[in-house]
Design a protein that fits this description.
The chain is mainly alpha-helical. The protein has a two-stranded antiparallel sheet with strand order 1-2.
């Protein structure tokens, strides 16, 4: 069955969809080619909206109009983990002075697994670990991946691995400080 164009006094075949409302509903009308062109020339999604409404729409559109979990919510496990990983309490001068001593230490299975998660060699210098962590955070951050939960879980693993190595390196530096002082 062919539909007639939904434009006043037009009897052409209506093959092209045109929205009836702005709310992205499935309600539409069918227009012929000439009238859908006319409709598109005059269509202004933001007609009748003030500047604040347009701004809010555009801001929401950046996340495909889906709500996102607040990174600052107090019960956000990822936030707690993230803040602990970023709290870098290493004394960089100590780290540089004692790096040669670190090479003689053995790493346990948790450390080896953490190196593997980060995709780096076991016993790598701390500065290289930090660089790799920053690169991975940029790559797997949910904001860079449309909020995909798979990437959020991957980033949690990366952050846990980084925290594991940070704690290990801190212990090794503290231990080596006792023997070299």
């Amino acid at each position: 069955m062919k539909n007639i164009c939904d434009w006043n006094n037009c009897f052409e075949i209506g093959e092209y969809k045109a929205p009836i409302e702005k709310d992205n509903s499935k309600n539409f009308r069918l227009l012929c080619l000439n009238h859908v062109r006319e409709f598109n020339k005059n269509w202004n999604y933001f007609a009748g909206m003030n500047d604040e409404q347009v701004y809010n729409f555009l801001k929401s559109d950046m996340t495909w109009h889906k709500s996102t979990q607040s990174f600052s919510s107090s019960d956000n496990f990822f936030k707690v983990l993230w803040n602990n990983a970023l709290k870098d309490e290493f004394d960089q001068s100590k780290l540089k002075n004692h790096y040669n001593h670190l090479s003689q230490f053995k790493f346990d299975h948790k450390d080896v697994k953490a190196f593997g998660i980060l995709g780096i060699s076991v016993g790598l210098k701390w500065e290289k670990i930090q660089d790799k962590f920053k690169t991975l955070v940029k790559k797997f951050h949910p904001d860079m991946n449309s909020g995909n939960k798979k990437y959020e879980e991957k980033l949690k693993l990366i952050t846990l691995a980084y925290t594991q190595l940070k704690n290990t390196y801190r212990k090794k530096i503290d231990t080596s400080s006792k023997y070299t002082a």
